[in-house]
Amino acid sequence: MKKSFVFMSTIYLALLGTAVVYYPQHVETAVIEDRAQLLPTQMKRITATTETNELQDLLNEAAKEDRVITLAGTQHSQGGQTLYPGGWLIDMKEYDEILAFDPTAQTLTVQSGATWSKIQEYIQPHGLALQVTQSQSIFTVGGTMSVHAHGRDLRYNALSESIESFRLLTADGTILDVSKDQHADYFQHVLGGYGLFGIILDVTLRLTEDELYVQQTAELDYQDYPEYFKEQVLENPEAKMHLARLSTAPDTFLKDMYVTNYLVALNQELRDDYAKLSEERIIAIPKFMLGVARYSDTGKDWFWDVQQTYSERLDGDLITRNNAMRSDSTFMDYESSSRTEVLQEYFVPIEQYVSYIDALREVLERHDINLLNITVRYVERNEDTVLNYATSDMFSLVLLIHQPLDEDSLAETDAAIEEMVATTLAHDGSYYLPYYQFPTRKQFKEAYPKWQSFQQFKEQADPEGRFQNLWYKEYFE
Amino acid sequence: MTPTLRQFIQFQSVIGMASAMIFPFYILLLRNVGDSYAQFGWAYGLFALSSALAYPWIGRLSDRVGDQRLLLVYSWGMALVLLVLPFLTDVWQIYIVQIVMGLLGAIGRNSEKTVLARVTTTDKAGKTIGNYHTVTGVAAAVAIIATGYLVDFLTIGALFFLASLLFASSAVMIHRIKKPLS
Ligand SMILES: Cc1cc2nc3c(=O)[nH]c(=O)nc-3n(C[C@H](O)[C@H](O)[C@H](O)COP(=O)(O)OP(=O)(O)OC[C@H]3O[C@@H](n4cnc5c(N)ncnc54)[C@H](O)[C@@H]3O)c2cc1C
């Protein structure tokens, strides 16, 4: 018995270790299902293959059967942008082939269902990186273009600047070559167009060098942040990326901040030592801490302290551009059918930041919502898209809110968010559209004054309304 | 060798906790991997069928090799299967695991009954078995309630691995039994 005990225990522990180590990678590659828990919708899901003509056939068939089509990438948008009752959802995730790559010209042509992560794996060995993406690389190119996403980058202005051209399958079945010079009206509408003008087929992206950055972290008071940002970050040509956090812990609520800057490292020869793309790490610990923060105020104070200490420890650490664009995210996944986690994002001009935060704090103190995290980043003015949030140089604030799904809690959040959006608009700000439909129609129209020309173009480009989604229905119809 | 009643109640409580912990998430996993009720039905059917076909064979084996060995097979087997579960992505993998779990389940359930039969004296059987079910039932209930809280803090993978560790420790409990029932 003793021998078999030692034997079995050894084998077991070895297998347990292996399972624990490999599980995070497994989760990362698993296919992700619908996340829109707030809007469960009956639809037929159709998986696109890499064959473009099949998409054309599908479009014909939908026209014949008079069906509405929605388009879906990884479905991380949270306001019904990929959903429509009774419609056909075209899942673009497998339409993801890399079609052309020119390392010298630093361009890449890829089908729109590819994730940034897949592209990074392809270009990293050539010492190349992306220009503009979100802070994580889990999203698809098509989904990212359709929200006109932004991230930590400080120098490439906006996603639109890094899109050389793309092909679009329009509602009448024709394929257009779209760029800033060709079919420019489509360019302005499809970027930030929420899948309403056709299927983005393949996209030619502008790339850049993968650089080695040294992380610089600092703690400061929110009142000092705008000046600090302008002088130490924006005017420092060595600073290429930036990210800050604003405390949601009761002791330091909306006052304490810590920032992380990514400065070009002096010794670029070291880059290859750091170039390997990071895998999603074992997430048990951050997941546990976020769990504690969800439950109590003490938990939030503790979470903030831990985050701060962790950020200080990062000071001086080296990281490549590619890896700075693929931070962990699965620890935020939250499994529950009665509660979820929702995001909100507000944009406010740099000069208004301090008075805005004071006003926001006042709103939040009156409402009972469970705010877990606020991230602050920078977006530069960009007028390339019609539904444009970056109307001046702005700070963006992403709020992560823990949300029970019962009606009372939703109503409370609704009220709080309406007030937060009103406060944002009163400070010449705007809000981000991929998230849940809490803001009112009136607020939408105020934040996006060009909504009418967006709608006109939609009616002209897709008179039958083949491409639809719940978000459009909510705000336009 | 057969464990004492006390040892067996402890063992069975740990097993009950581990099973109760993962059950709802196992259902969720089946639902996510399969995409029709027919596949769901097949997964359960295979489990029941492999159990049923194994019972006669296991019954005879139990008298020959003893309860201790079979309980070890059950505990270690479950500990290993739970390490694999979070990695499954295809229906055929689920089918195979269901067959294996059907066999293990049959071994577990058969041994539960043979041990109870061997350790109870007939005149006190009612009381003993009632007592046995109370303790193991409470343990499972506590585990179910605790898991309700744990899911907010643990990943699904971590939950399965934790349950696997419980099964492994139940195996260790069986390994440590030296004296036969007096
Ligand atoms: C945890 C988290 C972190 C985030 N971080 C950031 C961030 O740092 N910066 C930021 O800007 N945003 C961020 N977002 C928002 C995110 O960028 C958007 O939700 C984005 O749309 C996600 O891409 P997706 O592939 O999941 O798109 P989906 O949600 O699948 O689709 C979004 C829209 O794109 C359309 N679409 C998708 N594919 C195509 C196609 N091939 N052709 C035409 N239309 C298409 C859909 O119809 C839909 O309207 C974050 C979201 C989450 C949940």
From TrEMBL, chain A:
Keywords: FAD, Flavoprotein, Oxidoreductase. SUPFAM superfamilies: FAD-binding/transporter-associated domain-like (SSF56176), FAD-linked oxidases, C-terminal domain (SSF55103). GO terms for molecular function: D-arabinono-1,4-lactone oxidase activity; FAD binding. One of its GO terms (cellular component) is membrane. InterPro entries: ALO_C, FAD-bd_PCMH, FAD-bd_PCMH-like_sf, FAD-bd_PCMH_sub2, FAD-linked_Oxase-like_C, FAD_lactone_oxidase-like, Oxid_FAD_bind_N, Vanillyl_alc_oxidase_C-sub2. PROSITE patterns: FAD_PCMH. It comes from the Bacteria. Residues 38-210 form the FAD-binding PCMH-type domain. The keyword Transmembrane helix does not apply. PANTHER family: D-ARABINONO-1,4-LACTONE OXIDASE, L-GULONOLACTONE OXIDASE. This is FAD-binding oxidoreductase. The lineage of its organism: Bacteria, Bacillati, Bacillota, Bacilli, Bacillales.
UniProtKB/TrEMBL annotation, chain B:
This is MFS transporter. Keywords: Membrane, Transmembrane, Transmembrane helix, Transport. GO terms for cellular component: plasma membrane. The lineage of its organism: Bacteria, Bacillati, Bacillota, Bacilli, Bacillales. Coiled coil: none annotated. It comes from the Bacteria. One of its GO terms (molecular function) is transmembrane transporter activity. Pfam families: MFS_1. The chain crosses the membrane at residues 12-29, 41-58, 70-88, 94-111, 132-150, 156-174. Residues 1-182 form the Major facilitator superfamily (MFS) profile domain. Gene3D superfamilies: MFS general substrate transporter like domains. It is a multi-pass membrane protein. It is found in: Cell membrane.
